[in-house]
Amino acid sequence: MDNFTFAVFVFIIAFPFGFWRAKTEFKSRDWMLAIHIPVIFIILLRLYNKYYLHAEFSWSSILYNLIAFFLAQYLAGLIYKQILKKKKGERNTVK
Q: Which segments in the chain show pLDDT lower than 70?
């Protein structure tokens, strides 16, 4: 698995947790879990990649993985806030 494909998998893993993080209070227990649980899955994916697919580890992939992880968390939070804003706007309209 090349660096780009692995980064896409990291993005896919982290994205739903970004929605969860956006719903929680800042620095609460759930907020911390939403950030750290996907890291466990990413480590497991890296181990699977290494031992079962026999892919070599490259240090440059860490940069791609970090970018994919934080981008997924950030974009999921933005999308959640837009959905929340849209729902609030629909409730305030008079029919």
A: 91-95
81-85: long-range contacts (C-beta < 8 A, 24 or more apart)?
A: 81/22
3-class secondary structure, 91: helix
Distant-in-sequence, close-in-space partners of 57: CB < 8 Å, separation ≥ 6: 46, 50
Structure tokens at 36: 């750290």
- Dist. CA 45–CA 82, nearest whole Å: 31
Q: How does pLDDT run across 62-86, given as a tens digit for each residue? A: 999 999 999 999 999 999 999 988 8
Number of domains forming the structure of the chain: 1
First to last CA, the chain: 54
SS3 (DSSP) at 63: helix
Helix axes of 3-23 and 29-51: crossing angle, nearest 10 degrees: 160
Domain that holds residue 15: 3-92
